[in-house]
Amino acid sequence: AQSVAQPEDQVNVAEGNPLTVKCTYSVSGNPYLFWYVQYPNRGLQFLLKYITGDNLVKGSYGFEAEFNKSQTSFHLKKPSALVSDSALYFCAVRVSISGAGSYQLTFGKGTKLSVIP
Amino acid sequence: SQTIHQWPATLVQPVGSPLSLECTVEGTSNPNLYWYRQAAGRGLQLLFYSVGIGQISSEVPQNLSASRPQDRQFILSSKKLLLSDSGFYLCAWNRPSTEAFFGQGTRLTVV
Fold first, then answer.
1. What is the architecture, at CATH level 2, of domain B3-110?
2. Is the Cβ pair A101, B42 closer than 8 Å?
């Protein structure tokens, strides 16, 4: 089954320090990978995606992610964390919907990021 | 530009009452539409998806149903709510090769 895993339930980082939120994937073929952020009681906001091309993908709010095929990883990174980055982060992979000729996103369980002032 | 509207934002309903949550998308045509449920502020469970009018697929057996009466309208319903139906419901849309965009969610509490 095609899936993503987020091994950390929670990540704590001091403001101004670099942050990493981990994601690994298991897919057949070339993966389409995504990162989303969710603030309390809100919908998910798209941050960035990897479809093809450069392994380093830049997204919204200064975030970037590195696609690593050999390690089957797609970790989310930011050079300098802000308190306002504190939120729930989801990694997702595009999965084909059998027989429908379309796709859905399968999400990881989410990682809660807390940036400490 | 495309936008997605989902309402209501919060809802408190008694056990056994009906449910209707509505989602509409503007600025695109023939989107794929999805209903997700998020329990305890964490993982997302796909409930239903639709690739066209009247075409609904269910991912998990449950007390809920979905309908797509118009191209850009997706409705989540129940005839009789259970306590276990409480949660945060999210509507989303995408085109087949793009990222998904989410509504703001509905917090449903069944009492």
1. Sandwich (2.60)
2. no
Quick check: B72 and B24 in contact, CB under 8 A?
Answer: yes
Neighboring chain B residues of A100 at a CB cutoff of 8 Å = 49, 51, 57
Name the domain count of chain A. 1
By Cβ distance, the residue of B6, B44, B99 closest to A34 is B99
Q: Could you tell me the residue range of the domain that residue A90 belongs to? A: 3-116
Q: How far is CA B45 from the centre of its chain?
A: 11
Query: Which residues from chain B sit within 8 angstroms of residue A44, using beta carbons?
Result: 44, 90, 92, 100, 102
Q: What does the pLDDT profile of chain B (111 residues) look like in tens digits?
A: 779 999 999 999 999 999 999 999 999 999 999 999 998 767 888 899 998 999 998 887 678 999 999 999 999 999 999 999 999 999 999 887 678 999 999 999 999
CATH, residue A50 = 2.60.40.10
Contact B49 A97 (CB under 8 A): yes
Which of B42, B57, B104 is the closest to A109 by Cβ?
B42
Question: CB-hemisphere CA count at 13 Å for A14?
Answer: 1
Within 13 A of B34's CA, how many CA atoms are on the CB side?
A: 25
